[in-house]
Amino acid sequence: MNRPVDLTFWLLVAAIGLLTAMVLRKDPSLLGVALQHSSRLFAGVRVELVLGFVLAGLIDVLVPQALLMKWLGEQHLAYGILAGWAIGLLLPGGPSLLFPLAANLLRQGAAPGPLIALVTAKILLSPIRLISYEAPLLGWPMTFARFIPSLLLPPVIGVAGQWLFTILRKYP
User: Fold this and answer.
1) pLDDT tens for residues 4-40?
2) How far is Cα 105 from Cα 37, in angstroms, rounded to an integer?
3) CB atoms within 10 A of CB 84
4) What is the pLDDT of residues 71-88, one digit of tens each?
5) In angstroms, how far apart are the furthest CA atoms of the chain?
6) What is the DSSP string of 53-113?
7) For residues 15, 16, 22 and 23, what is the CA-based torsion angle, rounded to 10 degrees?
8) Alpha carbon 120 to chain centroid distance?
């Protein structure tokens, strides 16, 4: 399966090339150290990445297209943004689950606004992070002071994102 080469690919190649040149100029022996760090980072997330892609594939075959379009499609954007917001609040896991799932939903035809609300809610409001790290380390007053405004943002960002995507889609 051939994937088209897009702007993201070329930006990553350019960034890697530039940083590699900088490392080589500083000290060529650091390139090996950088590659070791990269491999350790990859080893730390590879299982989660694979699981995220497997989950996205399972959802792809389990969720009927009509149901997906009803809740996350462009025909019902208001409901879709609210559904994306709720899914983002309830979705467990980290970015290695979130982004394969969101990419798969987008490929299946989900509208950008609901997916933007989903991703925003998940990133801003992870209940597990809130209870496990934020409240114990920062205290409940600080946690609530951040949580309550963040709770209101995903639908607004979903609407703004849908509008912006519509404009940007016209300019490949």
Assistant:
1) 667 778 888 999 999 999 999 999 999 999 999 888 8
2) 32
3) 30
4) 888 888 999 999 999 988
5) 56
6) HHHHHHHHHHS-HHHHHHHHSGGGHHHHHHHHHHHHHH--S-HHHHHHHHHHHHHHT--HH
7) 150
8) 8
